[in-house]
Amino acid sequence: MNVARILYPVKVLGPGNRIGIWIAGCPRRCVGCSNPELWETQPKYEVTVFRIMQILIPLLKRRETDGVVITGGDPFFDSRELYHFLLSLEPYTKDVLVYTGYTMEEIQCGDACMKSCLDHIGVLIDGPYQEQLNDGCRMRGSSNQHIYYLRPELKQCYEVYMTSSPNRIQNFTVADGIVSVGIHSRGFNKKLISEARKRGVILGEQ
User: Fold this and answer.
1) What is the rounded CA–CA span in Å between residue 107 and residue 114?
2) Phi then psi dihedrals of residue 96, to 5 deg
């Protein structure tokens, strides 16, 4: 797996305290993407599912951990690795939220691994990000995306979460800077670069 980030506790991508996993690799290059630095895979991010689980199991066993969110990049970019990862997670949590630029129809028409992933995902949010449709819809980057409750027992919890507050941003301090997590408003990257420049900080433009 090409895993760029593991953050905990993520409170703004699904209900409760979640383990956030960002997988690198995405061919779509959506305009306005909040994570363009994760479009390309990198050798330094390569790690086995076994090693990832060694890191995650202590967190998954915490009473305070409510679930996992997998995003990117695009987790379905390498559906075989995603499938094995989902199988490894299943004994520890059924609440696995996955964001993907693929549509549900594309996944259902994909290869065996891609289709089998759906059996081990709790909630799927599908579809490419379309900046012109970023209108503040809850938990989604743009309104063309859909929420699928693949484990129906999770629906009520998510619906309560979505009606409790608007989209929020959570910032994590990491070794090489700050990671901003959540559903960002339209034009967020440009606004961030502009505001940073006003303060004498030059950010990489992607």
Assistant:
1) 6
2) -115, 115
Q: Check: CB of residue 79 under 8 Å from CB of residue 117.
A: yes
d(CA 116, CA 107): 9
* pLDDT by position in tens, the chain (length 206): 999 999 999 999 999 999 999 999 999 999 999 899 999 999 999 999 999 999 999 999 999 999 999 999 999 999 999 999 999 999 999 999 999 999 999 999 999 999 999 999 999 999 999 999 999 899 999 999 999 999 999 999 999 999 987 899 999 998 878 899 999 887 666 665 565 566 565 555 44
Contacts of 1 (CB under 8 A, 6+ apart): 23, 46, 47, 48, 49, 52, 78, 81, 82, 85
* Residue where the block lists tokens 């994590």: 172
3-state secondary structure of 86: helix
CA quadruple 158, 61, 177, 205: dihedral sign: negative
**DSSP H helical segments within 68-170, as ranges?**
79-89, 104-108, 112-117, 155-164
Largest Cα separation within the chain, whole Å, is 50
CA distances from 49 to 43, 75, 130 (A): 15, 13, 31
| Residues forming beta bridges with residue 69, ordered by sequence position | 20, 97
Q: Which domains does the chain have, with CATH numbers?
A: 3-198 (3.20.20)
Q: How far apart are CA 184 and CA 163, in angstroms?
A: 18
Distance from C-alpha of 55 to C-alpha of 84, rounded to nearest angstrom:
16
pTM attached to this predicted model: 0.91
